[in-house]
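Supplementary Methods. Inverse-folding protocol.

Structures were first reduced to a discrete structure-token string of length 321. This string, shown here, constituted the complete conditioning input.
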């Protein structure tokens, strides 16, 4: 007994005639008849009552039909699973991420993913969230790691929040601490020499808005730098910078203090910490490939690991599991 015989049997049972089943299977009718006769011989029972007007199932045929359908369905399931595994051998993932995430979360995720699936072609696009969503909408990306500051996802995307992290103030470990405690207010930060990101950064828009809301004008020592340059300038003691907590992981040359948001009332107390939400976005109307699905799981696992390592300044956007 083989799958071709079972498929032929199911089609004859469905159409009730050998002629119509042969057309559906793109077989010559004599070939189809031989397959059914061979199956009957192997089973030791006739499966059809053959008549000029058509063929109907015998008792043995009625017993075999649900089993044959189940066996064919199982075979198709195995075929799909093997095809997905083959996809992980030859697939491609096009991932977009913001600059902050590229030097932190994405670096670890891609390192782990490549070690486990070395044959998968990886392509990375490093831009701000708005640009990444445009690329996602244009079919240029499979997944995009974005932040909520300054970027709103339209209905054509499926957006899953991963992490909520605080913005912190970083300074060089070679310089004195910028605050006596573990927090600092916006007014105190405004008086420090600051290194500001390029205006294209979502993070820059967030911090600019916070200073405006508090009526503050920060002292700027350098403006327009990219993330890597900002971190190196701070390590060299050129100034301080406001960055996501994530970038402090594995950077012993930097220290950080938590940043209080704009004052919430006339009492003078600092407001809630400034935060951002990191989410993974994908096209809502495109079924992900096996490789993209695995990358999505790798990103979620990486986010969980980062949240555990970052302590109080970062938490999962949704409970694990």
């Amino acid at each position: 007994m083989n799958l071709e015989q079972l498929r032929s049997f199911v089609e004859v049972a469905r159409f009730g005639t050998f002629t119509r089943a042969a057309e559906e299977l793109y077989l010559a009718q004599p070939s189809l008849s031989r397959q059914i006769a061979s199956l009957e011989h192997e089973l030791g029972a006739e499966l059809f009552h053959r008549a000029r007007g058509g063929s109907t199932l015998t008792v043995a045929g009625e017993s075999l039909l649900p089993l044959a359908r189940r066996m064919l369905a199982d075979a198709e399931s195995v075929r799909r699973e093997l095809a997905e595994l083959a996809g992980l051998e030859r697939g491609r993932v096009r991932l977009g991420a913001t600059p902050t995430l590229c030097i932190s979360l994405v670096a670890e995720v891609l390192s782990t993913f490549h070690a486990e699936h070395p044959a998968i072609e990886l392509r990375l696009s490093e831009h701000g969230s708005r640009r990444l969503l445009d690329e996602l909408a244009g079919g240029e990306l499979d997944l995009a790691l974005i932040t909520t500051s300054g970027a709103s996802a339209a209905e054509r995307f499926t957006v899953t929040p991963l992490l909520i992290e605080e913005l912190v103030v970083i300074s060089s470990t070679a310089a004195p601490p910028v605050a006596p405690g573990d927090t600092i207010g916006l007014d105190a930060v405004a008086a420090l020499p600051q290194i500001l990101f390029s205006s294209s950064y979502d993070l820059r828009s967030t911090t600019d808005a916070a200073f405006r809301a508090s009526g503050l004008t920060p002292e700027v020592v350098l403006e327009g730098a990219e993330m890597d340059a900002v971190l190196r300038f701070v390590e060299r003691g050129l100034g301080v910078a406001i960055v996501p907590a994530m970038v402090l992981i594995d950077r012993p040359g930097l220290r950080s203090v938590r940043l209080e948001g704009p004052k919430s009332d006339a009492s003078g107390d600092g407001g809630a910490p400034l935060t951002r939400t990191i989410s993974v976005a994908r096209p809502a109307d495109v079924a992900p490939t096996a490789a993209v699905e695995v990358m999505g799981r790798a990103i979620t696992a990486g986010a969980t690991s980062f949240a555990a390592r970052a302590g109080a300044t970062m938490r999962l956007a949704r409970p694990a599991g």
